[in-house]
Amino acid sequence: MNNFLDENNIKLNNSFYVDETYSKDHIHMVHSHKTLELLYIYSGCGRYFIGSREYAVNNGDIIICNANILHGESPLQKHTMQTYCYSYDNVKIKHLPINTLTLPEEKPLFVISKELLCHFNSLMPMIHNYFHKGNSQIAKHLSISLLYMLYNEILTHQKAKTTLSEQKNDNLVRNITAFIDDNYKENLTLEKISKTFHISPSRLSHVFKEETGLSPIQYAIHRRIGEAQSLLIESDAPIQDIEESLGFCSSVHFCMMFKKYIGITPKSYRQHFKRSCKK
């Protein structure tokens, strides 16, 4: 299974742990990265949005968020999850784009087999603790072992050929999603989107919500808030710069919308993750 082209260049960028209490009150909405992310459901359950579909997730599930694939927690559902999340860069597998573990048509959610479950439950907190205690090399090598085990699981699923079936209106929803992804920082309206695709607003909204669980405008808002969450965690940019870059009309509007969907202010959200990284 020597499919990783250059193991030495694989980088473990970051490690996050979110407990059940915080997960219940503060979701991380739709966003994307140039890196590969693995999200492991250590305990509990919830719902997660990946690509253009929403999935029920439970303890023992691992979510593969390939580079540039939209993902996030559903704000319309209760979450009681305890999760570990790892961000990788320079993961190169033959015949796949960089930072990608699965083919586009494959389901991005895997249930870890009973044989490996105890190993994943041990490795996840171990990697996180080593990473945040400054033992980055140990964390990196353990996380690469995790990648190998997961990729072996993926190969097993590929042999079983369990792929997502094509559904009606997939292409339209994919195109609408791409349009919103390119324009969510602007003041989008349902009428503007429907004119772009030459379809009535009611029909567009129905098709999109049937596939994604969200209206087009809800999805655009989730994209803004999700990107704001990522910037608050991963950068030191001033909050005012973040809100302006995402098209919010004022600090009051940004703070109000962020607190409405996430449950706390942007400042408190950033402080929470800064404290978590120091533990």
Automatic annotation (TrEMBL):
Q: Which domain of life is it from?
A: Bacteria
Annotated signal sequence range: none
A GO MF term: DNA-binding transcription factor activity
> Where does the HTH araC/xylS-type domain start and stop, copy by copy?
174-272
Record's keyword terms, sorted = DNA-binding, Transcription, Transcription regulation
What's one Pfam family the UniProt record gives for this protein? AraC_binding
State the InterPro entries in the record.
AraC-bd, Homeodomain-like_sf, HTH-like, HTH_AraC, RmlC-like_jellyroll, Tscrpt_reg_AraC-type_HTH
SUPFAM superfamilies of this UniProt entry? Homeodomain-like, Regulatory protein AraC
Name of the protein described by the UniProt record: AraC-like DNA-binding protein
Q: Which organism is it from?
A: Pectinatus brassicae
